[in-house]
Specification:
Layout: H1 2-20, E1 27-33, H2 40-50, H3 56-69, E2 71-78, H4 79-91, E3 95-96, E4 100-101
Antiparallel strand pairs: 1-2, 1-3, 1-4
Helix pairs in contact: 2-3
Length: 102
């Protein structure tokens, strides 16, 4: 009987360690799509306002990419923050692709 208890202990310890193991927070892409409604200035303004650490120069590059290629990934990061940025940009009238895992 003692042998059974000691053999179960390492299995319990492993499962406890697996539960405590740090897993990376899911990351998601925020993608803006091209449309015939929004101006470059509006897209740039929204990107600078809502995307963390976005500079005007980078926002202009992304606006040109959206126009030329039909879409651009404007931010990648934790799911909850991606959802907020996606909602804010969409609320300003930008055409958004569904969130996708990065």
């Amino acid at each position: 009987m003692v042998r059974e208890l000691t053999s179960a202990a390492p299995a319990q310890q492993r499962s406890r360690e697996q539960l405590l193991e740090r897993r990376p927070y899911p990351r998601f892409k925020v993608v803006v799509l091209d449309d015939d409604v929004n101006t470059f200035v509006h897209v740039v303004d929204c990107l600078v306002r809502y995307v963390p650490a976005m500079t005007p120069d980078r926002a202009w590059e992304l606006a040109h990419q959206i126009d030329g290629q039909g879409a651009a990934v404007v931010w990648v990061g934790p799911q909850e923050q991606a959802e907020l940025i996606h909602q804010q940009l969409g609320g300003e009238g930008l055409t958004m692709a569904p969130l996708e895992p990065a």
